[in-house]
Amino acid sequence: MMKKIVTAILAVICLLSVAACSQTNEANTEKQETIKMGVIPTDDNADVSAMYEPVAEYLEKETGMNVELFLANDYTAVIEAMKNDKIDIARLGAFSYILAADQTKVEPLVAEISKKTGDKFYTSLLITQNDSSIKSIKDLKGKTVAFVDPASSSGNLVPRKWLLDNGIDPDKDLKEVIYSGGHDASVLAVENNKVDAAFVAVNIYEDMKQKEMIKNTVILGESEKIPTQPIVARSALDAETIEKIRTAFIEMDKNAPEILDSFKEAQGFTSVEDNEYDGLRELAKLLNLDLSKME
């Protein structure tokens, strides 16, 4: 009799477990209907909505889901929105991705393939005027130098390490540090003799040079390689949705190459892993950056 009761109890437990598992599986396999993509203003102040609407339409076609654009003022607002599940994917800077990964659960989907380098890395350039007495990075002591933004990889962080490697403390040895707010603004500050030198992303400088926007500048040096901007996603997104988005970006150059015009410096996208940004993490440690205070 006892054996029958135990058997009956086990049967009920099994049935309840199966039901619970079934409900859990249904929840986990619930299809994502809408993707919210975070974007920020570009250096040239273009209409961001107009720029990314073709991207949204392309993703809708490739994934079968609705895509909405979330316009933010800066990377901080995008990261905060991801923390609160307000957006699902976003285009971040390399360092901004590290900041996001430190604060919330995100993962890199793809990285941009640079038009300039042909791979998922780029560099920072040190530039000055053609007739400047500055001939190398070691000549920057006592000079006025333009950086882009405190959280910019190529416009501030990598250059700071570059300076330190050459015996220059950017906080003590420079006459003045100016944060221009954009790579193009830094280039023009040098061009118009507003600063003695500047650190800028190679792709933006070369683009401005090609468009003949600058004539009075010269390159003094080039930094170590920096990972390009990634497209990231909330880790909580279901695996199928994440894979659809990743595949859509990777195949963009084949399926809709004209869409790449929205990503000025990219000729395509390729897969990327979190550990490829470890070099920047080490850089942050070297510079004693407190990521929790860079929100």
UniProtKB/TrEMBL annotation:
PROSITE patterns: PROKAR_LIPOPROTEIN (PS51257)
One cellular component term from this protein's GO annotations in UniProt: ATP-binding cassette (ABC) transporter complex
Top-level taxon of origin: Bacteria
InterPro entries, alphabetized: PhnD, Phosphnate-bd
Record keywords: Signal
Any one biological process term the GO annotation gives: transmembrane transport
Entry keyword Signal: yes
Coiled coil regions in record: none
Keyword Signal carried by entry: yes
CDD domains: PBP2_PhnD_like
NCBIfam families, alphabetized: 3A0109s03R, PhnD
Family affiliation: Belongs to the phosphate/phosphite/phosphonate binding protein family.
Record-given protein name: Phosphonate ABC transporter substrate-binding protein
Organism annotation: Peribacillus asahii
Lineage: Bacteria, Bacillati, Bacillota, Bacilli, Bacillales
